[in-house]
C-alpha cells in the first residue's frame, strides 16, 4: 500500500490531483474511472482538511492507496474527532436542495463502487472497480 502524508492546507489538494493524474497515466485508466476517481478522492481529502482537521495546518491527512487489476482503493484519514456518518441529511430533499454544502459524501458514494467509514468517522475507504 502506498502512502502520502500532508498538512491540512487547501493548497495540498493539488498534490492529490497530481497523484491521481499520475495513477491514471501509469495504469491507463478509462476517462470515466479517472473522472469519478478525481472527484471522489478530492472531495474526501477536502472533507478531511476542512471538516475533519478544521483547516488546522499542524494536523495531517494520510492518504493511502492500493491498485490491483480489479480495483483501486483509497483510504483517507484525518486527525479530527470524526463525525456521525450514519446521520447525514439527504441533499436531494427539497429542504436541502438550495444549500451550498452537504453534497460531498453523497457524491463520493454515488461515484465510487464502495464507500465506508471507520467507526469514529475520521477515515473513509473509497473503492473503484476496474473490471
From TrEMBL:
> From what superkingdom does this record's organism come?
Bacteria
- CDD domains to which the protein is assigned, alphabetical: HATPase_RsbW-like
InterPro entries per record: Anti-sigma-factor_SerPK, HATPase_C_sf, HATPase_dom
Q: Which GO terms describe its molecular function?
A: protein serine/threonine kinase activity
Q: Which UniProt keywords apply?
A: Kinase, Serine/threonine-protein kinase, Transferase
Q: Which Gene3D superfamilies match?
A: Histidine kinase-like ATPase, C-terminal domain
User: For this UniProt entry, which segments traverse the membrane?
Assistant: none
Q: Which Pfam families does this UniProt record tie to the protein?
A: HATPase_c_2
Kinase as a keyword of this entry, yes or no, is: yes
Please report the stretch or stretches of sequence annotated as the Histidine kinase/HSP90-like ATPase domain.
8-127
- Please tell me whether the keyword Magnesium is annotated for this protein: no
What is the name attached to this protein's record? Serine/threonine-protein kinase RsbW
